[in-house]
Amino acid sequence: MTTNDPARWWRQTRGERATLAAIVVLGAVLSSWNLGRGGDLSFYAAAARSMSESLPASLSGSFDPGATVTLDKLAGFAVPQAISIHLFGMSTASLALPQVVEGAVTTLAVSVVVLRWLGARAGLVAAALTAGTPIFVSMFGHPMEDGLLTAALAVALVWWQRAALTRTWWPLLTAGLAVGVGFQAKMLQAWMVLPALVLGTVLATTGAGPRRRRAVGHVAVLVGATVVASLGWSVVVALLPTADHPYVDGSTDDSVFAMVFGYNGVDRFLPGAWPGAVGALGHASAHAADAWRAVAGHRPGHSLLQLVTPRYASQVGWSWPAALTGIVVGAVRWWPGRTVREARVPTATFLTLVVWLGTGFVVLSALTLPHTAYVAGIGVQLAALAALGWWSAARLVDAPDRRLRLVPVSLLVVQGAWWAWLARASSEPTLLAVLAVGVTVAALVALLVRWRRVADAPSTRVVGSRRTTAGLLVAAVVLGPACFSLQVLDASRDGSGSDASVGVAQGAFARSGGAPTRALAIGRSPVGRGPGHTDTTGFSVSAPDPWGGQTTLPGEDRELVAAARRDGGGRDGAPLFLTDSWRLAADVIGATGDEVLTDGGFSGQVPVFTTAQVESLVRSGRTRLLVVAAGTPPTDPVRQAATDLGCRVVQRWGSALGQSQPWQSRGGSASTLERCS
């Protein structure tokens, strides 16, 4: 690692550049194999469609084209999706395409960090580990906010490292901006990297006198840029008059900070702690005991070791043995010399990755993870530290001290055992598991045979043997996750936009035997399989489906839209209708792009409209059609307005609107179209 002029891939050999390009392309091919099959939850797909057609909706992160209500989270993740839809039209694949690009960016970013830290070969190993990490392969093939978050934090690490190498402050502005982009994608989860970057900055720049002041200044630049980029949009929304911005979903008082820090933050740990957040139905003290049990790991079905259980370790944890090897060897190698100027940046990079990994592990272990993709929060760190483990083991193969040669041997033994257990526990196809574990055993045998023969072998044979051993060692570190990820070639083993994962489904939607039938309203299912179904009978390669994806409405939804249009809905720029079910609104917006006013938000608890406001909209002529979901209480604003105004029933529909689900908005499986004169 050199200073002032950091290493770049275009300055490496042609073979190394070609290898990196091949890794990136192969990763993109895997992620794109089922791009046209697995769509997003219709709520967020509809928002991306709205943002693609309406500048106000795009600027405000709104659910509907008319920008009357925002999403229940910051909508930065949907901006690339909206651009893609605007360019290529609405389809499952155009929704997911930006995530494929984000996956390539993540792979390149990790490879750059390790290139500047350990050299080109370690950089290639890190790239292969990133591109082959199962949760990345599935997540970057589906429209999920975790993709932009992961790419943004990987880019932030690149620019932080550049600042440390060049001893300049301006790259920290870019690093902070990148963390802010991650915040716009998934809010507080992006800030998990901040403690690591701050500690790394202090270690890389601290010293006596002017150096100490420079360290303080660099930290201030990093933190300041992060805060501004993270909170800038929210502050603008908070300062605008209520009439000049959409109602903020996730809050009961139209507060963007209640949505960001309450509904999507504090309330996940301490329900009720943030006033105005949806779900904050009581005081924090009433929930303190439950929250403590959650953090302490006493919650039913929750374990503080969940990240090393097969469900999650099979998605992100194949590299744990290599990463732990890297942590141990790195601590021995760099920590004693951390005050030496030449060792500051390598040590700072090592510390940053370890602290970031530790922070992510602790936070994700304490949470009940609603989606498997949350574990992507430790994927970048594991890939980089596992590359360090490979680099350390490869350098110790011919160590003069034979005790140090136990490092690569131990790595191979533990790695092989870990892979064998994970493969069995996660039902990996036998052929793929045997290939990965078999190469690890072959690497171990080759290493032992080499040590026996190296003393008597000619120098040319020693060089050839060293290259063979190094190649097998690379395979023994990379093949485990890569082979497991090959299961995405079978469309039934590639997860979904609701729960990205690879292999036999074990996520939130697998507990009842399959995903909800309408969670993928904008996607299409593999031939012969229902949405969310996971085939456990065997692994077979599906035909590639990299483009397209249905955007048509179910039959009864089409009838509802047609009936609304016959009664004047959508005429002269008016909304098609006003409803209290986001599920119906999402399908209509996603398929047609028409404006549909929606009350209740994602949770069904958000007072987007009062009864008086609904009645005012009807009397003003802006809309005269209401769609009331069955089962809503009499106090529901849309139902109450329909009753007060004496609206006439135009038509009723039955079960086509889908089965009632925990995340469904107000109402059941039936609805009524009513016309108000």
UniProtKB/TrEMBL annotation:
The keyword Transcription regulation is assigned to this record: no
Keyword line: Cell membrane, Glycosyltransferase, Membrane, Transferase, Transmembrane, Transmembrane helix
Pfam families attached to this UniProt entry: PMT_2 (PF13231), YkcB_C (PF24878)
EC code: 2.4.-.-
GO molecular function: glycosyltransferase activity
Topology in membrane: Multi-pass membrane protein
Disordered: annotated span: 525-554
Xref: InterPro entries: LipidA_mod_glycosyltrf_83 (IPR050297), RgtA/B/C-like (IPR038731), YkcA/B-like_C (IPR056785)
Regions crossing the membrane: 18-35, 96-115, 122-141, 191-209, 216-240, 318-336, 348-367, 373-394, 406-424, 430-449, 470-489
Record domain Putative mannosyltransferase YkcA/B-like C-terminal: where: 576-628
PANTHER family according to UniProt: MANNOSYLTRANSFERASE YKCB-RELATED, UNDECAPRENYL PHOSPHATE-ALPHA-4-AMINO-4-DEOXY-L-ARABINOSE ARABINOSYL TRANSFERASE
Listed name of the protein: Glycosyltransferase family 39 protein
Organism for this UniProt entry: Curtobacterium citri
